[in-house]
Amino acid sequence: MTDASTIDATFPAPVREGAPAPVLRTEGLTIRFGGLTALSDVNFEIARGEVRAIIGPNGAGKSTFFNCLTGVLRPTSGRILFDGQEISGLSPDRISQRGIARSYQITNILPNATALENVRIAAQSRRHGWNMVSHYRAFGDLIDKALAVLDSVGLGHKATEFAANLSHGEQRNLEIGIALATEPQLLCLDEPTAGMSAAETHETMRLVRKIAKNLTILIVEHDMQVVMELCNRITVLHYGTILAEGSPEEIQQNARVQEVYLKT
User: Fold this and answer.
1) Could you give the dihedral angle defined by the CA atoms of residues 18, 1, 47 and 240, in that order, rounded to the nearest 10 degrees?
2) What is the Cα–Cα distance from 259 to 5, expressed in whole angstroms?
3) Cα separation of 51 and 64, whole Å?
4) Which of 11, 54, 121, 240 is the most exposed place for a label (fewest CB within 10 A)?
């Protein structure tokens, strides 16, 4: 077995013959806040259909990386390519239109709207553009889409429930449903099991496995059991650079990763 410390994190790995083409790639991605460099020359790629985790200590640059990919932050330098097209510096709504969706570490839902309305609005943003004035019954196709999405995340029976009245685990799964309603190719999940009970975590892992059959998924997650059980490969960030990449087994055995993060 190859030790992950031998993997060259300086340049993207060459595409192997017969390997899936990367759906997302970054080249020299760098972002600075004044004198602080949050990401430094990050070269990263994720293959279509892969489930990849981004891990690392607090301050490693994980959230900054997600924010760059989804348009919340503009890179200082470098490029982001999605499906072969550069998306560096595009606004979040344009990146969503290209096919990247995300959930947030802090639940990002409309608490005083029903579960159905939350998902319907997201579906509407993909198909018709935002229209908060028109009555939702004018969009029958969107209602059908929203109901199908709620069923897919196990919330079909909660369609008419106000989001604020859902349990924490249900709210997190609703947020995944909101992301799915935009019909993404790449789904970025930011701490999807944060604050969940063991039972809720198990159910969310089951959900992620289910939706991963049709999506590429990128996860930032602190729960190492979740990471090791869900992901094909893991990228470790440390002080804004890639420390190591490899399979869960390779990362667990990497002495440098153990020293700076896993503490085993």
Assistant:
1) -140
2) 12
3) 19
4) 11
